[in-house]
Input
Amino acid sequence: CIRDRLYSADGGQSWLPLVTRLLEPFYSFYVSDVPASSQALIRVIASDGFYTGVDESDDSFSTEAPRPNSISLRGQSAVQAGQTFEVAVVANQLTEPGLFGVQFKLHFDPSLLRVEELQLYPDLSLAAVEEIDNELGQVSVAASRQGRVGNLTGDITLATIMVTAISDRGDAYLYLSDVKAAARGALPLELVNVQGLTVDISP
Output
């Protein structure tokens, strides 16, 4: 089967080719190589020489540079069925006063994905909640630093999550909710944007 993968930066009004006549069933690209967009889409055109099928992202996603004091999910945009891959929960460009503790819930479709492992950032060594629920499709985290240490600033990978694609095909959307962050002394740290991740699963 031959596949073409296309990228749209305007919600599907126009399309740019990412790769053509691809024989492999999956393909990854860097968002820095495509025009930045807050309404990006992927289209896959597959043909066996007799029949042609077309599929597109179920939801738009962002390829814009992360904003300061934001949290985003980072990982591969396309995987094979059965493949295990990493998703990172990243706090971007944290400014003063910085981050001492954080809590969030990560949601996913349990018919498409299974979470294998959760690993917190080593400096968030006091974990009050660290739970994986593959029936509900949810990962819950509440963790902080401990001792007489300062707040975290800059780009911080809060957690890494190993995920397996358990469906033959589909667009899996991972997103965060109930996100709260605070500096030392429970001083709230306002987060301006929380960005999810769409992963295309193919056979």
